[in-house]
Amino acid sequence: LLSWQASYDPADQRTCLICGDRATGLHYGIISCEGCKGFFKRSICNKRVYRCSRDKNCEMSRKQRNRCQYCRLLKCLQMGMNRKAIREDGMPGGRNKSIGPVQITEEEIERIMSGQEFKEEAPEHTWGNNGDSDHSSPSNGASEGNQPSPASTLSSNRSVEMNGYTAALRDQYINTSMSTHYQLLPHLFSYAAQSGLLAPQPRGLYPQSHPMVLQLVAAEDLAPLTTPMLIEDGYKVTQVELFALLCRLADELLFRQIAWIKKLPFFCELSIEDYTCLLSSTWQELILLSCLTIYSSQIFGDLADVTAKYTPSDDELQGFSEDGMEVMERLIYLFRKFHQLKISNEEYACMKAINFLNQDIRGLSNVSQLEQLNKRYWFVCQDFTEYKYPHQPKRFPEIMMCLPEIRCIAGKMVNVPLEQLPLLFKAVLHSCKSSLTSYRTGPSPCVTAASGN
């Protein structure tokens, strides 16, 4: 192994054993790319516990590797990445360059993937602000089974360990003092199990959280969409007409996202190049999130009425792809989840910022600053949600677990042929509107304005 290392040529076009991307060298014992090296280090250092939304056998490629963190970490371990080669101080560089790949048993892998090994170690966990961009924010997590579990969070991906969630951590990102009875908060995702030991207590909102949330809401264009979606009775909408309408809607929604970026309170903290990179990678996710929340009444009302006037041909029905079926099922599930949660404008604004500030996107220049911003709004969102809904201890993780599902759906929609989009939207909107009619007993779904601020 040592002789192989000495003769290794970085310019040699080897491929990463995890995702197939161009490898940059021997990292933690195996040939891998910078992306998988950093992911493995973040996962182990931050004691991440992920969940897979499928069958724990997701495709690992350069384009798909960010879709499921569980399967990515699983493959890292299966291919021999050595967690003991990671420096304990979290700084760049391996602990021992001579450490090679390791073979561990299925039982050991399961202990790592389930978090059992981290619990037994029980080290004092901190997220030091040492400038190492390899540290990860709490924005990555995983969904489990066909519906994401509360142990899930951001990046297709999904569950986040919050062992180091202490007063010092919150102070670091919100810069406010914390009262003593909040210095030992329980592990975020085991809170439900411990709720009998720590009943919800009324508390105040941290001073900087409220203005930061209001700044995000102020950046949003909450006005109704202006794209005409009214069709006279008796008119039969064609596939071409419906597709053209969907394109006009996408244009308007994308234009609003661009305007939103310019109004963000942290707009001056990142470069135009990074904003361009972020938008090009997340615009579909941002549009989907807005359609499920602030524009839901128009999408599941006016647009659904238009799609109802479109009758697909037999050829269209028979040619509907498996990818289209999967996207349809996931969208319907997600709609019902959002309807159940009734996301407030404040929560929506935080979700959108967290999803947008994704430091795992390739090509970013200021990853460290992006990570700080992501963490900042993560904790602001948690603070606001726990303050507004003290008797819903699982609300924050349930909100966060919707984001990886949105990313997953957005990624899969790319595989749906364009000519099938009219049928996809008709099927989804018809199903969602029907279910909405059947169990509507209260106010309008999805978005409610949080009151009492």
From TrEMBL:
Q: Annotated region Disordered: where? A: 120-158
CDD domains reported for this sequence? NR_DBD_GCNF_like, NR_LBD_DHR4_like
Task: Please list the GO terms describing molecular function.
Answer: DNA-binding transcription factor activity; hormone binding; sequence-specific DNA binding; zinc ion binding
Where in the cell is the protein located?
Nucleus
Q: Which GO terms describe its cellular component?
A: nucleus
Specify the NR LBD domain's residue ranges. 208-439
Pfam (any one) = Hormone_recep
InterPro entries tied to this protein: NHR-like_dom_sf (IPR035500), Nucl_hrmn_rcpt_lig-bd (IPR000536), Nuclear_hormone_rcpt_NR3 (IPR050200), Nuclear_hrmn_rcpt (IPR001723), Znf_hrmn_rcpt (IPR001628), Znf_NHR/GATA (IPR013088)
User: Does Zinc-finger appear among the keywords?
Assistant: yes
Q: Where is it predominantly found? A: nucleus
Keyword annotations of the record: DNA-binding, Metal-binding, Nucleus, Receptor, Transcription, Transcription regulation, Zinc, Zinc-finger
Keyword hit for Nucleus: yes
Q: Which residues form the Nuclear receptor domain?
A: 13-88
Give the GO terms filed under biological process for this record. response to lipid
Polar residues compositional bias, start-end: 127-158
Q: How does it assemble?
A: Homodimer.
Functionally, this protein is described as follows: Probable orphan nuclear receptor. Binds to a response element containing repeats of the motif 5'-AGGTCA-3'.
Stated family: Belongs to the nuclear hormone receptor family. NR6 subfamily.
Among PANTHER family, the record links this protein to:
KNIRPS-RELATED PROTEIN-RELATED (PTHR48092)
UniProt protein name: Nuclear receptor subfamily 6, group A, member 1a
The species is Salarias fasciatus (Jewelled blenny)
Its taxonomic placement starts with: Eukaryota, Metazoa, Chordata, Craniata, Vertebrata
Gene name per UniProt: nr6a1
